[in-house]
TrEMBL record:
It holds the Pfam family Fic. It comes from the Bacteria. This is RhuM family protein. Gene3D superfamilies: Fic/DOC protein, Fido domain. It comes from Halomonas rhizosphaerae. Residues 171-327 form the Fido domain.
Amino acid sequence: MSTESQAPIVIYQEADQAVEVRLDAERDTVWLTQRQMGEVFDTTPENVLMHLKNIYADKELEEPATAKDFLVVRTEGKRQVRRKLQHYNLDAIISVGYRVNSRCAVQFRQWATRVLREHLSQGWTLNRQRFEENARELEAAMAMVRKTAGSPALDATSGRGLVDIVTRYAQTFLLLQRYDEGLLTEPRAEAGGRLPTLEEARTALASLKAELIAKGEATDLFARERGDGLDSLLGNLDQTIFGEPAYPSVEAKAAHLLYFVVKNHPFADGNKRSAAYLFVDFLYRNDRLLNAYGEVVVNDVGLAALTLLIAESDPANKEIMVRLIMNMLASSEARVSGEAV
């Protein structure tokens, strides 16, 4: 075990005694040598070593997981010497502290936890700000490319097709990256959106069912309602709270319609296909099946992938999934502007 590291140094000071501590934010821990632990707990390095040996012998901790070599610069006489010294992480430090002086261990643990929390919080904030700035720049660039694609100078089919592929891929990648980072926010949305009545939904699904049965791709169980599940689902989407719509936009209604039909299983069979069909039907009824460029907002492959993603998603991630769908449906202008509802 021989590892060099450039972990930042922070200072732990208690009772007018300062000790340099290596901060390892990636592993949510800090590192001290035997000598430094002796200074923190007011004991000798030899006593610290004895406790560490007992801790590892008792299998309280595993040495490979809690000990690490760091390259340090030390002054020896008039020379500065680079040496590798073994350091121990917070778990080992606390274990030693309980055996030497629990009060000091509590004080150090409180300090270390506060430092780690501050460091991680500041780092996350900076990373988020930097990511969002990069995202806005990428979105603006994609908007410029799309605008250029409409120029007469690019009337060749191959040129337009290439630009379309590049911009579609870039936008999809951006949404997925935001999804992975948990940074998706609700886009600027179009207020309103008329949901189908129960009879309209049934009529649309009956048409789909007949077509699938004719192809041998479904049975009579397809889209057969389970109780009043579909009626309740549509009613919930159309409800109001204190006089205001619970789902006030086309994007919100569409996203929740797709999500709830997939997850709530209102049908005996074919819930995912029924959800996708009702989703497309809703967009068509509200003149949102095509975007401002005359393109289908979600093609067959994308819709199938999105429906499966919802089906496999953890219910705890419902809001993230809904925001992902809403962002996919939002107009390009809303995505570029970064404005929220």
